[in-house]
Design brief:
9% of the residues lie in helices and 38% in strands. It is mainly β and 119 residues long. It has a six-stranded mixed β-sheet with strand order 1-2-3-6-8-9, with no helix packed on it. The protein has a three-stranded antiparallel β-sheet with strand order 5-4-7, with no helix packed on it. A hairpin with a 2-residue loop joins strand 4 and strand 5 (36-41). The longest helix is centred in the middle third of the chain and has 7 residues, at 63-69. The protein is globular, with a radius of gyration of 14 Å.
C-alpha cells in the first residue's frame, strides 16, 4: 500500500490486475492524532498509468484500525484515512462498472512494494 500524491491510498489489485486508487468524492473521517479523527474534505485523486478509480460504497473499521486510533500501531502514521477493507465500483477504464472487494492483505507479488517486502 502506498500513498497517492493527492492523499489517496493505492492498493495492489489481486493477481495480475492493475493497482487501483481507493477514493471518494465526499468527506472522510481522517485519523489525525492518537484518539482523534476529523470529518473533512479530501482531494479527488487522478488515476495514473495502470490504475483505475473506485467509487467506494462501504468500508469497515477493523481491530487494526482501532489499534492505530489508540496509538498502538507505528505503521499507521497520521494523517490517514482508516478503513482498508473496501467494496466499490470501478468507474473508468475497460473494467468500468465492475464491483470489487479490496482486501489489501492479498497482494500481487509483483509491484515495487511486494518485491521490497512491504505488504
Amino acid at each position: 500500500m502506498t500513498r497517492h500524491p493527492k492523499g489517496a491510498v493505492l492498493y495492489p489489485m489481486l493477481r495480475n490486475n492493475p493497482s487501483i486508487i481507493v477514493t471518494t468524492t465526499m468527506k472522510a473521517l481522517v485519523y489525525t492524532n492518537t484518539n482523534e479523527v476529523i470529518y473533512r474534505e479530501e482531494p479527488d485523486p487522478v488515476a495514473g498509468p495502470g490504475e483505475v478509480l473506485v467509487k467506494m460504497e462501504a468500508t469497515g473499521i477493523c481491530g487494526s484500525d482501532m489499534h492505530a486510533y489508540h496509538g498502538h500501531d507505528a505503521r499507521r502514521v497520521p494523517p490517514l484515512i482508516l478503513g482498508h477493507e473496501v467494496v466499490g465500483t470501478i468507474v473508468d477504464g475497460p473494467q468500468a462498472g465492475t464491483r470489487v472487494v479490496i482486501n489489501p492483505l492479498i497482494t500481487c507479488g509483483h509491484c515495487q512494494d511486494c518485491e521490497s517486502g512491504l505488504p
